[in-house]
Amino acid sequence: MIAVDAMMVCLDLSDIDEKLVGFARSIFERVPVKKVYFVHNIKTSELSDDFREFFGDVNISDEIEGNITDIVTAHFTNAADYEILVSEEPNTEIILADLVKRYKIKLTLLGKKMSDKSTGALGTKLLRILPCSMLVFPETAQFPIQRVLVPIDFSDASLHALHLSRNLADQLRLHLEIMHVYRLPSQFFPLISEEKAVKKAEEVVKEKFADLQKKHPEIAGIPYTLVRAANKSIAGRIAQQLEKGKYDLLVLGLKGNNPLPSLSLGSVPTEIYNTDINVPLWLVYSEDVIK
């Protein structure tokens, strides 16, 4: 059974906070969660001299904590063990990474605005450095969740995401589907006809799925779709499949095996995060990768 010892919810004092807290409550109602931390960091660099001169000795941390408390209590009164943490640090991503380690956070919930409202720069940084799995909730997303899509590339990371998704689907009675995006070696055209190349590529992938199902019988009954990348990126095809299949959750495994933080996230998760998708995105690390 999937359970979360500690979950962190990152709030930014914008309109999305209300939906994010509501989504956190939805998770709490369906998955065992021991404790929830609602956090916000006030970047000290944003507190200008003009601000301090205008507001004087107002304790901004207390004011923000009170605002967050109003939102949280509307959803979590007598429902969960939670704590509100407001900090004043120059670097938000560093303090949040520290909180993840200090409180042994297993899952971080992060809101995401559409690209016309935000660059998503902070979110991208958090995805790269937080040592835990992350659940990204776009402002246009809805809940609860019924249909789940798991793209796999047959790597250990994607198989971990698949097993986790299968457990979640069984636990919550969700409909789960797998997809795989393949590419053709275009440098061989026109020596080999495109039709033959597609047929051969799909045969190879189907053999991989057959081998996978033999090794892991528990995933044998999950339907899967093969999609050719063609003139689109892998992330682009995944986004297209999301819209086509009317899914409610996308799950991607993160490798995290590169010692350079700027390279550990992977190109597909990064591109998906920077795409205006309308469903929550669950980016999962295995425990071994986190350690």
UniProtKB/TrEMBL annotation:
Species for this entry: Pontibacter mangrovi
Q: Which family does it belong to?
A: Belongs to the universal stress protein A family.
Note the superkingdom of the native organism: Bacteria
**Domain UspA positions:** 145-271
The entry's protein name is Universal stress protein
- Tell me the InterPro entries matching this sequence: UspA (IPR006016)
